[in-house]
Amino acid sequence: MLHNTEHVFSLQVPNPRPVTVAAGEHLGYCWLPWREAAARCFSWSNRDALLMLPERVSQARR
């Protein structure tokens, strides 16, 4: 692949919330700290999107 466009969405949640995923989808999901999630990514573009999270949070606070 020579070009890939990632669409990035992030949400900072102030308090823990239960998460529901559709049955039959995302069977191997797990919630991880962002650094660990980035380290596990197969896709470099997904990894880079996760590594941008601290900057995005910092910009949102301005």
Oligomer: single chain
- Please bin the fraction of helical residues: 25-40%
**Total count of strands:** 0
Largest sheet, in brief, is: none
| Proportion of beta-strand residues | under 5%
Give the overall silhouette. globular
- In round numbers, the mean pLDDT is 84
Low-confidence segments: none
The H/E string reads HHH
What distance lies between the first and last C-alpha atoms, to the nearest angstrom? 36 Å
Instruction: Indicate the radius of gyration in whole angstroms.
Output: 14 Å
Structural class estimated from helices and strands: mainly alpha
- Put simply, the count of helices is 3
Any descriptors?
62 residues, mainly alpha, 3 helices, 0% strand
Give a quick rundown of the structure:
The protein is mainly α and 62 residues long. The chain contains 3 helices and no strands. It is globular and about 30 Å long.
